């Protein structure tokens, strides 16, 4: 079990790392895409020098904690090596590379500290908005600027119909397939939002439901999941209807939903 001192240090350094990664990305935005080396991965997704630069500085900041790191842009240890880790970081140093390369809002930096139950710290940085969202299990949700300056206290808002259902811009299914159990299509408004910022909008009270049917990776949702867990909201596997599992053999999430209703 992490000591209170190490846990607090993990919170502080996760926020620091998210801010540092964000600043690297913002610096890269000032360069044209001609200056960035961009390539396609095996799964067809794009990766650039900016992804690697963000990953490098985040890893440098978090490594002194001595906690293993699973990052989208680093070599992954085998499942046999990592399956019994009591704690580990899940990192996406640039969530939404395509949005970043098109210089549009929606890209983020995702950092989550997980134990055997899932994310216990979730940090999502929105570089273009100069905002870092942080959720810590048993400590709640907070917002700060990229430099760590604390911002407003979050106010709860009444939940009422029509419920705002957030999903991906590339979602292929219709409303019916996205609905959590007990929610009717007539009671929702569907809104596409990029990346992990969907989870943040639920935490802020700017939406009530988030769902997706497509497969993506654990580091895409762990930080957002950690933010929602900090305020008592679980994220569920859309097939099993059980809370998402992490550090699985293939690190894939095959659809999810979460709801404040």
Question: What integer value in Å does the Rg equal?
Answer: 17 Å
Terminal CA distance: 33 Å
- Going by helix content, strand content and strand pairing, the class is alpha+beta
Give the fraction of residues assigned to helices: 25-40%
* Average pLDDT score: 91
Strand content: 25-35%
Biggest sheet overview: 6 strands, mixed
Number of helices: 7
Secondary-structure element order, N to C: HEEHEHEHEEEEEHEHEHEE
Biggest sheet, spatial arrangement of strands: 3-4-5-6-7-8
Overall outline: globular
Please give the number of β-strands: 13
Low-confidence stretches: none
Structure, described:
The chain has helices at about 5-30, 50-60, 80, 95-100, 175-180, 195-205, 220-230; strands at about 40, 45-50, 70, 90-95, 110-115, 120-125, 130-135, 140-145, 165, 190, 210-215, 235, 250-260. With about 260 residues, it is of the alpha+beta class. Strand 5 (about 110-115) and strand 6 (about 120-125) form a beta hairpin. The longest helix is centred in the N-terminal third of the chain and has 26 residues, at about 5-30. The radius of gyration is 17 Å and the shape is globular.
